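tool_call: predict_structure(chain=1)
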Amino acid sequence: MKKMGEVLSEILKDWRCGKLGDEVRIRENWREIVGDIVYKNTQVVGIRNKVLRVGVSSSAWAMELTFIKDRIIENINHLCGKTAVEDIYFKEA
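tool_result:
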């Protein structure tokens, strides 16, 4: 049987290095990734299968963001140091 400290250490390692770690890193740096104006009109919902889900304030914002989606993905993957996101799904929140 493992000690509680060992279990917590493994969980924290997975959290920092795994999918959850990427999501936390993206949430914490969202303003830097997208800029102030986009930041004020969006919210990171989550990541599933390397697809980032982002809530937006209007359908117009969803349409506008599709034009810069590749740049956002590039910024995220640069921040994470790997291909953490392959696509982004924008939906009016």
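agent: The longest helix spans residues 19-34. Proceeding to next step.
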